[in-house]
């Protein structure tokens, strides 16, 4: 590249990015074109000749933007999606520009050091044992995988089986207990690990999706041999928490490894008024959580946190003669994750914690929970709208046509969600809960405040009215 062109190129990308972010609140809260529209924009033959970098970046922005979902906007309530905070994004740009392979401390001292420090901060903020090891992964899906890999190895090691070396062929079969309303990705992790996504004991859950304590006691009484218990902090639809204080001691009686999927809910522990929800979660053996949800880091970022560092390392070992050994006091990022080469995720995590601080994180979590309650209260005042769950955290479900026959309410709920998405003032998606259609609302963007929530609630009510009282009727 010619002199100066790197700076021009980076400035250009920064200008596109800033323009996108600056207009985010005023944009339609949804993509302007569908997947097929985007495909038409991108599809062309393999270019024979190269193109100047600046043109490539301008063209990329022009082609991509109509097909982008405004996930970073203040009125985005779909799935459970953090706001990709500008400070995290800027740190992530530097991460890319520095081009560090973060595998080990020798290759990139700064990448390894930022992870070490950020890992310590995470343990403090989440109030987990300070001696836990932390793997910086792509998200809670892989964090669940890493934690359950360590669980699998350790429960089998205790009965004399080396799963890392011998695999599962001929191994004593571990029993896996999991709540009926666990997240789909936990079942995927079990599938990747050869434990089977269906070869589990599924425990019945209550109206909020929490494992029933007495059923858990009954089930565990029947178990002998290696076992893994999977609990949840923050159910994807209700935000509810399993009763860790009651369940973990029962799991301990049978010597089970206890894993907690806390993709977003574990952050209740970083917020003093909400901490009680996840009380005793620190008694578990491993925890999966996300950076790209409540901590607002850009994608992708999650953390696999494990009490037993040796079990963590054994499960993720990569040994090769050309890789430097690590010594006492040095930490290699790759010892705690499945990948060898990967981006230096510690920088964005470090930047977000530094930016928000302990108080900022606590205040944000508290605000989101309060805003969720405010939105739900406003919606509940409207005839025909029902909020289905007690709001313990930041998640709630809404049903439209409440009081009408189930099938009709299903249809009205679906239609209202479609109408809301077409209106584009805010975004929320549909789901099924207990066999019935619902709309899910997740309040988790750093930009969402009372006023954004009020605008969104009004838009939801307007969509419902348009569906329930069609013009002319
Ligand atoms: C989001 C989520 C996951 C999956 O996390 P990813 O970051 O999408 O990989 C797992 N469990 C729960 C409870 C979640 O909310």
TrEMBL record:
EC number assigned by the record: 4.1.1.28
Assigned protein family: Belongs to the group II decarboxylase family.
Name under which the protein is recorded: L-2,4-diaminobutyrate decarboxylase
PANTHER family: GROUP II PYRIDOXAL-5-PHOSPHATE DECARBOXYLASE (PTHR11999), MIP05841P (PTHR11999:SF70)
Required cofactor(s): pyridoxal 5'-phosphate
Pfam family, one: Pyridoxal_deC
UniProt-listed GO biological process terms: carboxylic acid metabolic process
Modified positions (N6-(pyridoxal phosphate)lysine) in chain numbering: 293
GO MF term set: aromatic-L-amino-acid decarboxylase activity; pyridoxal phosphate binding
Keywords: Decarboxylase, Lyase, Pyridoxal phosphate
Source organism (scientific name): Sinorhizobium americanum
Keyword check for Lyase: yes
The organism's place on the tree of life at top rank: Bacteria
Primary enzyme class: lyase
């Amino acid at each position: 590249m010619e002199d100066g062109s790197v700076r021009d190129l980076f400035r250009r990308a920064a200008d596109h990015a800033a323009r996108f972010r600056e207009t985010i609140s005023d944009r339609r809260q949804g993509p302007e074109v569908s997947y097929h529209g985007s495909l038409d924009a991108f599809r062309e033959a393999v270019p024979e000749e190269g193109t100047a970098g600046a043109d490539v970046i301008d063209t990329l922005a022009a082609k991509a933007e109509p097909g982008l979902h405004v996930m970073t906007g203040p009125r985005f309530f779909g799935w459970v999606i953090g706001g990709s905070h500008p400070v995290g994004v800027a740190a992530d740009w530097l991460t890319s520009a520095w081009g560090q392979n973060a595998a080990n401390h020798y290759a990139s001292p700064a990448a390894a050091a930022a992870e070490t420090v950020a890992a310590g901060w995470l343990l403090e903020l989440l109030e987990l044992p300070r001696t836990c090891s932390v793997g910086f992964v792509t998200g809670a899906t892989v964090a669940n995988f890493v934690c359950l890999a360590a669980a699998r190895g350790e429960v089998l090691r205790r009965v004399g089986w080396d799963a890392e070396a011998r695999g599962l062929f001929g191994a004593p079969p571990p029993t896996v207990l999991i709540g009926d309303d666990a997240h789909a990705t936990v079942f995927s992790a079990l599938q990747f690990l050869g434990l089977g996504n269906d070869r589990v004991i599924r425990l019945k859950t209550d109206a909020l999706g929490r494992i029933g304590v007495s059923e858990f006691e009954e089930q565990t009484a029947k178990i002998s041999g290696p076992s893994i218990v999977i609990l949840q902090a923050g159910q994807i639809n209700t935000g509810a928490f399993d009763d860790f204080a009651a369940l973990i001691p029962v799991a301990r009686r049978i010597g089970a490894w206890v894993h907690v999927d806390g993709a977003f809910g574990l952050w209740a522990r970083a917020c003093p008024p909400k901490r009680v929800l996840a009380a005793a979660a620190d008694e578990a053996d491993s925890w999966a959580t996300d950076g790209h949800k409540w901590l607002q880091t850009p994608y992708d970022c999650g953390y696999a946190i494990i009490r037993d560092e040796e079990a963590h390392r054994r499960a993720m070992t990569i040994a090769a003669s050309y890789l430097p050994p690590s010594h006492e006091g040095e930490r290699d990022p790759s010892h705690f994750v499945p990948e060898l080469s990967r981006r230096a995720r510690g920088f964005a995590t470090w930047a977000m914690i530094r930016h928000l601080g302990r108080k900022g994180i606590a205040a944000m979590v508290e605000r989101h929970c309060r805003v969720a309650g405010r939105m739900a209260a406003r919606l509940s005042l409207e005839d025909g709208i029902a909020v289905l769950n007690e709001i313990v955290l930041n998640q709630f479900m809404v049903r439209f046509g409440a009081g009408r026959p189930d099938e009709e309410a299903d249809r009205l709920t679906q239609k209202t969600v479609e109408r809301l998405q077409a209106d584009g003032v805010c975004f929320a998606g549909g789901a099924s809960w207990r066999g019935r259609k619902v709309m899910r609302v997740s309040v988790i963007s750093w930009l969402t405040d009372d006023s954004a929530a009020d605008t969104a609630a009004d838009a939801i009510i307007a969509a419902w009215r348009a569906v329930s009282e069609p013009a002319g009727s």
